[in-house]
Design a protein that fits this description.
The complex is a heterodimer of chains A (363) and B (490). Chain A contains eleven helices and 17 strands. In chain B, a hairpin with a 4-residue loop joins strand 5 and strand 6. Chain B is globular and about 70 Å long. Classes of the chains: A alpha+beta (363), B alpha+beta (490).
Amino acid sequence: MQDSAHILQDQVQQAITEQQPLSIQGGNSKAFYGFAVQGDVLSTSAHRGVIEYEPTELVLRARAGTPLSEIEALLKQHQQMLACEPPYFSPTATLGGAVAAGLSGPSRPYRAGIQDTVLGCTVLNGQAQILRFGGKVMKNVAGYDVSRLMAGSMGCLGIILDVTLKVIPSTKAEKSIVFTIEPDRSLAFINDLRKRGLPLSASCQLSDQLMVRFSAGIKEIAGLENRLTEHYSFIEWFKADDHSFWKNLREHKLPFFDQARTLWRLSLPADVDVYGLVDNPENVLTEWGGCLHWLKTTKPATDIFKHAADNNGQATLFRYLQTETPDNIFQPLAPPLAQWHKNLKAALDPLSILNPGKMYVQD
Amino acid sequence: MADPIIREALLSALKKILDAPFILSTQEQLKPFECDGLSVYKALPMVAVLPGSVTEVQEVIRLCHQLKVPLVTRGAGTGLSAGAKPDPEGLLLVMTRLSNILDINSATQTARLQPGVRNLAISEAVKQHGLFYAPDPSSQIACSIGGNIAENAGGVHCLKYGLTVHNVLQVSGFTMTGDPITIGNGGLDNAGLNLLPLIIGSEGMLMVVTEITVKLLPLPSQVEVILAAFDSIEKAGQAVSNIIAQGVIPGGLEMMDNNAIRAAEDYAHAGYPRDAAAILLIEIDGSPVNVSEQLQSTRKVLQDSGVSSVRIAKTDAEKALFWKGRKSAFPAVGRLSPDYYCMDGTIPRKSLAEVLGYIHALSEEYGFPVANVFHAGDGNLHPLILFDANQTGQLENVEAMGAKILEKCIEVGGTITGEHGVGLEKIRQMPLQFNDDEISQFHDIKAALDPDNLLNPGKNIPLLKHCQEYRALAKNLQPNQLLIQHESTT
């Protein structure tokens, strides 16, 4: 248990005095994500420890530098878990980094996104003030919801000092199944599964293979095979270790995620086709029931951002070769929204000390 | 008082935007819009308009911006914190005519809505696709989705399915300069900053919303409703914690105390045990196997928690009847006294018994009966304090008692408002939950998005000088000391 909030506060104060930007790090597990920041490193990794955990309340509060692995191990002891399966990308991943990156894992559409589970957080803003927003109860509408605004803000609005999260009871049983189905029929099929009340908790489409995970009580999972074979004839139970498949998907350790290549992440309405953006359909991996696509493509960034914008979604250049300098990593914003981003940055970090340029060149 | 020159300029420009019947400016026309669901706060706006198109909304906003006229957006007017109380020097933008369901997409399980669509109308319209919209505030028959966005509305089913903020993908509308802006998109993640939670629950103070995309969920294949009676509030409160602790998240988990039980039973004849100290209504939903597993484990937890009796509704009619009692509890309690004041604090579940005991003691001290009917699974209390506003001093005493309840909520780690919003009603208690730096940060955020402070000014975030006054007073809080001036047109 280490509370070093005031050391971090002094560091921000000094940065203000010297007008020196800070590059914020947790476990440095997602340094590849977003633009590189030129600035002195401010590390939250020493500010760690679980502050409060009450299993009966389904609430956990921990300091930003607490390793995710420690939190998940603690929850597991009490038959609980994080709803959103946040990716680590390195064993050093921290809670603060996970919330700041705003990334959620395979269960996102069926349980929650990381931003949905944030109940409150303490923030060190760009004026070196320590501020607390939200709280530790499920419902809280006092003031503006700054705590959920922090999720996915990539350290550009404030340094997250601690986070209070809603946690959920652990899944009692899981089973994964492979369906052979073309991508263009996959959405209707997934909707059919859901309407039958089947307990989906993840999906992954690669070429004509659709992997689906079901999570529920022991009896329900035991009876799953009978229920499925009543309706569908083209199924195959997972032969590999189910759990490691979903973990490897979350961590980008499946063979699909060849890390030597550029990787795009497209978050779109479930009925949008992305196959026009790749040369080979094998270069698309789709999660979240059709709402999240990973693409390996050499198409120009402008084409990809345009496809996302035209279809009411967004694209992110998730990984890129370090030899390249992209113009944009995150989806370009319409002018009024871009202006709001600038204004909010100025409201929380008026001197632009915190991770300047991490998300958008102009911030 | 409104400036007559600005009023004339506004009216004359409005006539070029809207047809005459949709511009309200006389006292008789404006009277129905003087308050929302919290009628102790009221004022006539300078003018009210009912636009019939998004273009009209945009032109009205541009006009207000040009003339620097404050703008208060109003939905169905069911809010319970005076968030939609008109500004006497401002324009009231009434969104009820924008009530079209624009699109239902059963493939993506989403619906695009205008802000005036009633909450219940969404679930009714998508039922044919086997879908529903989860947030269901008690006012769902009348309240609108635009108002739900403004307040981040909750409801019975939020325990399992989340609040409005968890069930909305996208909102479009206008900044106070009249520029179109869209927050969120048709996917599950925002582009850029996560602004949806900032807008949802912002009480109409950051933008005007003219279109909303909501997420829909498949209707559960089976639903069971349990009515559990207890001979003490403490046992019922403990049972709530025990149910959640064993790993079951019910679709709904509601609690009523004896005053609420008797009022609801007299009104709805739901079959509630009139002599119980408290009842829990527990809804378990999902697949048949899952429901049966959870019913079994919940029954065991109830027995271990000292339940007096357990009934499981046998028919759909009985399920509906169990819920009818709960859903009509507010009007039922309303029959017991001329007025009631509905509180909205939220606390950790483990503190339910302690806080309910404290409220009971306050009820005796102040001499106002209290009925408790609330979202126990979320720890979201709704004490209804019964009083008579026509008796001099009663309203002020009730508000002083209410302030003590909110202070207690903060003391045990909770919040002053779970789902009704701050509005004007709880603005004085904001400094209990936030310090001056935090309040200042809220003001900076407001100024970042509405620099002229024209959108719903004076709500939600108190002025710092009022915070300091409140804290000074609260140190020695006595009944009658925390009075406020209720603005009135009379």
